[in-house]
Amino acid sequence: MKKLVVYKSFFGATKSYATWISEAINASLLDFWKASRKIIADNDLIVICSGTYVGWMPLVQYLKANWDILGDKKVVIVAVGAVPESSLDSKRTYEKIPDEIRRSVRYFKLQSVLGPARNAIVKKKNIKEVVEYIKKLDTKKSANRSLKKPTRKPRSKHGYSKT
Known about the structure:
By secondary structure, this protein is an alpha/beta fold. The protein is built from seven helices and five strands; from the N terminus they run E-H-E-H-E-H-E-H-H-E-H-H.
C-alpha cells in the first residue's frame, strides 16, 4: 500500500507528529499545499494532519477541496490541539468536517500546547494508536491480496463506519 502523510502546522507540533507518523509507516511526507492532486491520486492511504485553532482546522478546507480524489482512498485524520478530545470545543471542531467525509475517515485527536510545556506534551509515543491502526490497514490489505476475502469496515472512535 502506497502511503502519504500531509500536514499543516503553524507552531510545529503537527509537523512533529506528521514526521513521526510518516517515519513509522514508511510514508512520503508533504505540506498540504505541496501535495498535488496527482500525488494524492497515486497513493492508497492518506494521513491528513492539522492543528486545531480555536474551532478552526485547516484540514476541513483541504478535505473539501480534495474529496473528489480522497473519497476512494483510506483516509486517516490527525487533529492536533491543546483542548482534549473529550471537550465540547473538540467535538464542535470535529463536527465541522462534513458528515459525508466524517463517515468515510478514521479520526484521531492528539494533544499539544503552546509555549515551554510543548516538549512535555508532544511526544512520539502519542502516535502509537494512529500507527497501530494504519499498520492493521496495511496488514489487512496484504492479506486481502493473497486470500481475497472481504474485510470488515473500520470504525472511528466516534462510531462512524468507513464507507
